[in-house]
Amino acid sequence: MSIAQTFAKAKAENRSVLVGCMPAGFPTVEHSIEQMIAMHEAGCDVIEVELPYSDPVMDGPVIQKASDIALANGVRTRDTLKIIEAVASAGATVVLMTYWNPVEKYGVDAFARDLAAAGATGMITPDLIPDEAAEWIAASDAHRIDRTFLVAPSSTDERIAMTLENCRGFVYATALMGVTGARKAVSSQAPELVARIRSIDPEMPVGVGLGVGNGRQAAEVAAFSDGVIVGSALIRSVLEAPDRATGLRDLRALSAELAEGVRDR
Amino acid sequence: MSAETLPDLAGHFGRFGGRFVPEALIKALDELEAAYRSAKRDPEFQARFQDLLLNYAAVPSLLYRATRLSEALGAEILLKREDLNHTGAHKVRNVLGQALLAKRMGKPRVIAETGAGQHGVASATAAALLDLECVVYMGETDTQRQALNVARMRMLGATVIPVTNGSRTLKDALNEALRDWVSTVDTTHYLLGTAAGPHPFPELVRDFVGGIGVEARAQCLEQLGRLPDAVAACVGGGSNAIGIFHAFVPDESVRLYGFEAGGDGMETGRHAASITGGSVGVLHGNRTYLLQDDDGQTIESHSISAGLDYPGVGPEHAWLHDTGRAVYEPVTDAEAMAAFQLLCRTEGIIPAIESSHALAGAAKIAPRLREELGRTPTIVVNLSGRGDKDVHTAGAYFGLLDQVETVVPGENT
Ligand SMILES: Cc1ncc(COP(=O)(O)O)c(C=O)c1O
């Protein structure tokens, strides 16, 4: 399913989309594929594959730790593309989240081409703002990859409007000022930001990320957003498990709980 | 394009620079840029900055004719004595400028990243002077290697936070400072330590340290009645080098040389030479040259000098390299340490190991320039800092430390 179809279907069902994030190659290539398919089966509508990067400034300690493990185990950009292919052919809607330098190093147009060939439908760029994205916009148009840029509570209305004009698929609203990582309470800045986005473009689906850790918080965020993005909490269930079977079981259980949450708004 | 008008409005030096950061930081960078533009035009701000430089930091620094070193190198060597500044390096200029800017923006807290601790100490100094809260991020590996500087920062009232992510060195401290800033921008100024990072930092830091070159140029005209043939500086992130280069860029007869840390030697892959041994990419908010693998993952740098041990470089240097206006070359640990010793023995000046790279570079270019010009060349070397902080490293390198721990207690009494 395309991103647009995924959001349209959820809207018809009067619920939010659940986006589950997992670094590629964490802890190994095979295991990360298994985890992503488990997340898909347990109710994640979109699998957000994160390309592990040495200097992930937007990410908190959990995602960085998982990325470091993946890199230490030798994951390469081409492995990430293989992982996407495996997860997409299992029927999941896949988007990639990546810092910009690995894309630039690969070659921007070649990357968009190979990403599309692997079956990803979109790409989230946490450290690329539209102002610097001319080459990416051209490549993603040429290869039909949806573009998700970020907006933040500190973004001016002008910047939100400019960013929305350059997004396709959905926009990523960072719910609070900070990096990724599960938090105890959902920020009050989030609903205000979503309202500002909607007043500028009522059509663009809004995914809200940063801080959701359980079904109750997913329901809270689902109440005012089109998509709930969860990363650190899912990764932690694998990271902190005593063994692999427990990790996979906890990952499925949390995915299912979150999937219920996005339907309970 | 001319160097005096760069960067452009979006912070680009040709294809370099710009802003590659999360959207959450854009407002803070815009605010910083606006505050800087207005401060630049404000005579009161400029007067306060100049007053602090003059009466607190002991700037302008001397331009010293190093006669015995000149003899040894076969060139007329003039040393820009930034080592005599308060806190012992050029960095005091940048921290005073930025701390004043933080005050002006009404931000009570500053954060900084540091490798060896030099920028951390300078930041803690400026924060103490201007009554700002100061938090310094430092890789855990570095806090252990540089325990004295950690103590210095604490004496000055700063909080030092050891960073345990990634390689636990400078680049990870920088990542952590950026993360802090994303969640504290309302109250916090990020006091970045070099002329790199997202726009407007490369421009702003260049301007705050730009006095080095303005002074050196005027001092040359006064002392020699002419400009030098070459200016040499070491390049880590690039602040002391851009600080001394900038005023000379329009003087086409003056050759500009930046010396990067060649570590164990370029052929070993263990170095910190981003321009001469790296490739173009994006790191820490700007497009520049950096050390990276085939996948665009940052490669850890290596240098005996902690202040040069960084896998990136400021975007203006990348641009000066591409245009050919400045020439960048690597200097190995061994070459730098030989120059370190030479300056100690000929001039009675113990230089920072960073600055020793510039001295070693001057030694390399002296015979070339002599041949090219057919006379003794005049070279201004930016002596960016003093070597007190490096006594342990250099002492160990040259085998000058008594093996205190092998002395059996009581045996000497
Ligand atoms: C004395 C001295 N020189 C040079 C440097 C390198 O930094 P930059 O390239 O920004 O001047 C440092 C950094 O710590 C330093 O302490």
From TrEMBL, chain A:
Protein family according to the UniProt entry = Belongs to the TrpA family.
Q: What is its EC number?
A: 4.2.1.20
Active site feature: E48, D59
Highest taxon of the lineage: Bacteria
**InterPro entries named among the record's database cross-references:** Aldolase_TIM (IPR013785), RibuloseP-bd_barrel (IPR011060), Trp_synthase_suA (IPR002028)
User: What is the annotated quaternary arrangement, including any partners?
Assistant: Tetramer of two alpha and two beta chains.
Determine if Secreted is one of this entry's keywords. Answer: no
Provide the protein name.
Answer: Tryptophan synthase alpha chain
**Which UniProt key words apply to this protein?**
Amino-acid biosynthesis, Aromatic amino acid biosynthesis, Lyase, Tryptophan biosynthesis
Q: What does the organism's lineage look like at the top?
A: Bacteria, Bacillati, Actinomycetota, Actinomycetes, Micromonosporales
GO terms for MF: tryptophan synthase activity
If you read the UniProt record, what top EC class would you report for this enzyme, in one word? lyase
One cellular component term (GO) for this entry is: cytosol
Whose protein is this, by species? Actinoplanes campanulatus
Per the record, the coiled-coil ranges are none
Gene designation: trpA
Give the reactions, separated by semicolons, that this protein catalyses: (1S,2R)-1-C-(indol-3-yl)glycerol 3-phosphate + L-serine = D-glyceraldehyde 3-phosphate + L-tryptophan + H2O
The pathway it acts in is:
Amino-acid biosynthesis; L-tryptophan biosynthesis; L-tryptophan from chorismate: step 5/5
One Pfam family cited in the UniProt record for this chain? Trp_syntA
Q: What this chain does, per the record?
A: The alpha subunit is responsible for the aldol cleavage of indoleglycerol phosphate to indole and glyceraldehyde 3-phosphate.
Question: Which SUPFAM superfamilies does this entry report, sorted A to Z?
Answer: Ribulose-phoshate binding barrel
Automatic annotation (TrEMBL), chain B:
The record's InterPro entries line, in alphabetical order, gives: Trp_synth_beta, Trp_synth_beta/beta-like, TrpB-like_PALP, TrpB-like_PALP_sf
User: Which Enzyme Commission number(s) are listed?
Assistant: 4.2.1.20
Q: Which residues form the signal peptide?
A: none
Can you say what this protein is called? Tryptophan synthase beta chain
The metabolic or biological pathway listed in the UniProt record of this protein is: Amino-acid biosynthesis; L-tryptophan biosynthesis; L-tryptophan from chorismate: step 5/5
Q: Is-annotated flag, keyword Transferase?
A: no
Question: What positions does the domain Tryptophan synthase beta chain-like PALP occupy?
Answer: 61-385
